[in-house]
Amino acid sequence: xxxxxxxxxxxxxxxxxxxxxxxxxxxxxxxxxxxxxxxxxxxxxxxxxxxxxxxxxxxxxxxxxxxxxxxxxxxxxxxxxxxxxxxxxxxxxxxxxxxxxxxxxxxxxxxxxxxxxxxxxxxxxxxxxxxxxxxxxxxxxxxxxxxxxxxxxxxxxxxxxxxxxxxxxxxxxxxxxxxxxxxxxxxxxxxxxxxxxxxxxxxxxxxxxxxxxxxxxxxxxxxxxxxxxxxxxxxxxxxxxxxxxxxxxxx
Length: 251
Hints:
The protein is built from eleven helices and seven strands. By secondary structure, the chain is of the alpha+beta class. It has two domains: 2-80, no CATH class; 85-249, YojJ-like (1 (3-Layer(aba) Sandwich), CATH 3.40.1700.
C-alpha cells in the first residue's frame, strides 16, 4: 500500500505541475512549499518561537490557498471532472498508432493558421477556441451548434464581416467546428494593450477557466494572438505557431 500511496501522490503532483506550469502561480506555489519546509525544519530544530509564527500561517493556509489559487483550483476540478474521455482515448491511440483512422480526427491546425493569416491581412476579426481535455459543451449550447469539418475556406466564410455567424467565437473539437457565435466569459481585470479589445479579453477568460487554447485575429491591427492559460504566448512565425498549437493539442 505504501508503494501505491507514493504513486498516487506522484500522479497528483504531476497534474498540479501541469496545471501551474508556465503561469505566475507556479512561483507562488514554490514559495508556499518553501515556507512549509521551513516550518517543518523549525519544528525539528525545536525553535518554538519561529515554529509558532509559521504555524499561524499554516493554520490559515487552506483559506489563503483557495483565495490565491481560485482560477487554478477551478481548472483542476474541471480537469478531474471532465467527461471528454473520448478525446483522450483518441489522443492516446493516435500516439500508439494502433488505429490509423483515428489520426483523421486531429485538428487541421495548418488550415486554421492560414485562414487567420488571410483574415489578418484584411483586418477581419476572429476568435477561435480549441477544446482540449476540459469539456466545454455548456458554451457550445449558448451559440449555434454545428458539425462542420475544419477548412480554410469555411473559417474565412464564418468570420466574413457580412456573415451572420461572424460575431462571437467558434469552438473546434478535434477537426470539427462544433459551435459558432459562442459567447465566452470575459476577463476585465487583466491589463492588456489598449489596441486589444473584447475578443482578446474573452480569449483570456476562457483559457483561464479551462485548458482550452485560443487564437485571436485583431480587427484593429490584423495581428494574430495565441493565448493559453490566460497569457499571450510568443511565437516567431506561422510555422512556429502551428507547431506550438499542435504540441499543446496532443498533450
